[in-house]
TrEMBL record:
Top EC class for this record: oxidoreductase
Gene3D superfamilies, A to Z: Glutaredoxin
Active site (catalytic residues): C45 (cysteine sulfenic acid (-soh) intermediate)
Main localisation: other
Any one of the GO BP annotations: cellular response to oxidative stress
Domain Thioredoxin: 3-151
Protein name: thioredoxin-dependent peroxiredoxin
Length: 151
């Protein structure tokens, strides 16, 4: 069942691209953009992650932490992050347990879904954008929503 706006974001702990354990609770008190994407270094996921990278300073200026999640290994995340100079956290959800917790499941029953969540400083989901093919829309729509909530 998908997490909905107004619900508490499910807690999780995963390893980042450097092998360090990262928990959602580590970010309490901050706004988080948590985006699930299918696979490192594929055309759509690269476009999406690079779009987040290109707007990273805007997110940072708004006090927002970016976190990308896929089922790829920490090593794959490290290489992907280095190759495209991604300045934010990438988490390895091997087995898709966190994806399942959030309901960011498969697209067409074949591919892991592409879903972005804005989680407020209290840990409540305040926005969800779900689109498999609107890669840059994840960034554009999320930025619009952050600007609306902060004004």
């Amino acid at each position: 069942m998908a997490v909905k706006i107004g619900e508490k974001a499910p807690e999780f702990t995963l390893r980042n691209q450097h092998g360090k354990l990262v928990s959602l609770k580590d970010f309490l008190g901050k706004t988080i953009v948590l985006y699930f994407y299918p696979k490192d270094d594929t055309p759509g996921c690269t476009a999406e992650s690079c779009a987040f990278r290109d707007e990273y300073q805007v997110f940072q200026s708004a006090g927002v932490e970016l976190i990308g999640v896929s089922g790829d290994s920490t090593r794959s995340h490290l290489e992907f992050g280095r190759k495209y100079q991604l300045p934010f956290t990438l988490l390895s959800d091997n087995g898709g347990k966190v994806r399942q917790l959030y309901g960011a499941m498969t697209a067409f029953g074949l591919f892991p879904g592409r879903v972005t969540y804005i989680i407020n400083p209290e840990g409540i989901v305040q926005y969800v954008f779900d689109s498999m093919f609107n890669f840059k829309g994840h960034v554009e729509e999320t930025l619009k929503q952050i600007q609306v909530t902060q004004s």
